[in-house]
C-alpha cells in the first residue's frame, strides 16, 4: 500500500460509519428502516442480497408458526409399531432426516426419530430386527400455532433442536415446523434434490426417477417422455392426476397413470404442487 492509499483509507469513512449516518434520522417504524436500507443499497453500502436477508428477518419477526408449518395431513410420520422393513422404506422414499413418531392414536406425537439414530442399525440385519424405536426416539418439542418465528428460531438455536410439533388451541396436532422452514423465510428457498428450477417442469434425479411439477403441461410431458397422455379433459399433469385420484391427495399418496407411478411429495389443501415419478417396468 502506498502513502496515497493510506491517506485515502484514513480520510474516507468506512461503510459502518456511513451507514450509521443514515440511521441518525432515528427510524420509527419498519418502513422507515426499509427506506434507510434502500438508501444504503443505492449508495453501495450494502448489496441487494444483504437487503433481502435483513427484510426477511424483519418479516419473520411478525410471522407465526401457523403461517409456514407443514399441515398435519402432509406430515411424514412413523408408527411406533412399524416393522423394520417399513422403516427402511419410509426413510428411503421420503429422504427426511427427522420423523414424528405416533402410537395407536394418530393425533398424538410420542417422539421424534432421527434417521442418523436409526442408521447404525441398518448396517446389520440382527440389530435392525431388534431395533426398538421407543429407545431411539427423542422427546418432541411442542409449540403453539401463534409462536413468533423469530422467537422460535432463537429457541431452535439455543436448544439445538431442528423440529417442533405445532399444536392448536385445543392441544391437537396442527402440523410441524423445522428450523429450515424458518431460515427459508429469511434467506430464501433452500433447494434440495426435489426442487425444480423455476423455468423447468421436470427434473431427473436418477435413472427412472424424476421430480415433476403439477403444472407441467401434458403436451410438454408427452414430448419429454415420448408418451401420448390425453389432454382432452385436463391441461396439466396435476389435473390429470386429480382425476385419477378422484380426490385431493395428501402427501405420499401414490397412483399409476399412463405407465408411470406418481407419488405426491408436495400438496396443500387446494392443489398438488410436486410429484416424484418413475416409469413402471413391465
What does this entry look like structurally?
Helices cover 38% and strands 21% of the residues. It contains 12 helices and 12 strands. The strands form 3 sheets. A 5-stranded antiparallel β-sheet has the order 8-9-12-11-10, with helices on one face. A 4-stranded mixed β-sheet has the order 1-7-6-5. Helix 4 packs across helix 10 (179-187). The longest helix is centred in the first third of the chain and has 13 residues, at 30-42. Mean pLDDT is 79; it is low at 3-12.
What secondary-structure arrangement, pairings included, does this model have?
Layout lengths: L2 H9 L3 H8 L7 H13 L5 H13 L9 E2 L6 E2 L4 H11 L3 E5 L6 E6 H8 L2 H5 L3 H4 L5 E3 L4 H11 L3 E5 L5 E6 H9 L14 E5 L2 E5 L4 H8 L11 H9 L8 E4 L2 E8 L4 E8 L3
Parallel strand pairs: 2-3, 5-6
Antiparallel strand pairs: 1-7, 3-4, 6-7, 8-9, 9-12, 10-11, 11-12
Helix pairs in contact: 3-4, 4-10
Shape: globular
How far is the N terminus from the C terminus? 72 Å
Mean pLDDT: 79
| Helix content estimate | 25-40%
Largest beta-sheet characterization: 5 strands, antiparallel
Question: C-alpha Rg, in Å?
Answer: 24 Å
**Number of E strands:** 12
Structural class: alpha+beta
How many helices? The count is: 12
Poorly predicted runs are 3-12
Strand order of the largest sheet: 8-9-12-11-10
Percentage beta strand: 15-25%
- Topology as H/E string? HHHHEEHEEHHHEHEEHEEHHEEE
Amino acid at each position: 500500500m502506498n502513502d496515497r492509499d493510506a491517506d485515502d483509507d484514513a480520510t474516507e469513512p468506512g461503510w459502518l460509519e456511513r451507514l450509521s449516518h443514515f440511521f441518525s434520522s432515528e427510524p420509527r417504524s419498519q418502513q422507515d428502516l426499509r427506506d434507510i436500507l434502500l438508501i444504503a443499497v443505492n449508495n453501495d453500502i450494502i448489496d441487494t442480497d444483504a437487503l433481502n436477508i435483513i427484510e426477511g428477518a424483519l418479516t419473520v419477526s411478525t410471522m407465526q408458526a401457523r403461517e409456514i408449518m407443514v399441515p398435519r395431513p402432509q406430515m411424514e410420520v412413523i408408527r411406533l409399531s412399524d416393522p423394520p422393513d417399513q422403516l427402511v422404506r419410509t426413510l428411503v422414499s421420503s429422504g427426511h432426516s427427522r420423523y414424528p413418531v405416533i402410537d395407536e392414536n394418530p393425533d398424538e406425537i410420542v417422539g421424534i426419530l432421527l434417521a442418523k439414530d436409526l442408521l447404525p442399525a441398518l448396517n446389520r440385519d440382527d440389530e435392525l430386527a431388534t431395533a426398538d424405536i421407543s429407545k431411539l426416539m427423542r422427546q418432541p418439542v411442542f409449540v403453539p400455532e401463534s409462536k413468533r418465528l423469530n422467537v422460535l428460531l432463537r429457541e431452535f438455536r439455543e436448544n439445538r433442536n431442528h423440529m417442533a410439533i405445532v399444536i392448536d388451541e385445543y392441544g391437537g396436532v396442527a402440523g410441524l415446523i423445522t428450523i429450515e422452514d424458518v431460515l427459508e423465510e429469511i434467506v430464501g428457498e433452500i433447494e434440495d434434490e426435489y426442487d425444480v428450477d423455476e423455468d423447468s417442469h421436470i427434473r431427473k434425479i436418477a435413472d427412472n426417477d424424476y421430480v415433476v411439477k403439477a403444472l407441467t403441461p401434458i403436451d410438454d410431458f408427452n414430448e419429454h417422455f415420448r408418451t401420448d397422455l390425453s389432454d382432452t379433459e385436463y391441461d396439466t399433469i396435476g389435473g390429470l392426476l386429480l382425476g385419477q385420484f378422484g380426490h385431493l391427495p395428501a402427501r405420499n399418496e401414490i397412483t399409476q397413470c399412463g405407465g408411470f407411478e406418481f407419488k405426491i411429495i408436495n400438496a396443500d389443501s387446494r392443489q398438488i404442487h410436486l410429484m416424484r415419478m418413475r416409469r413402471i417396468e413391465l
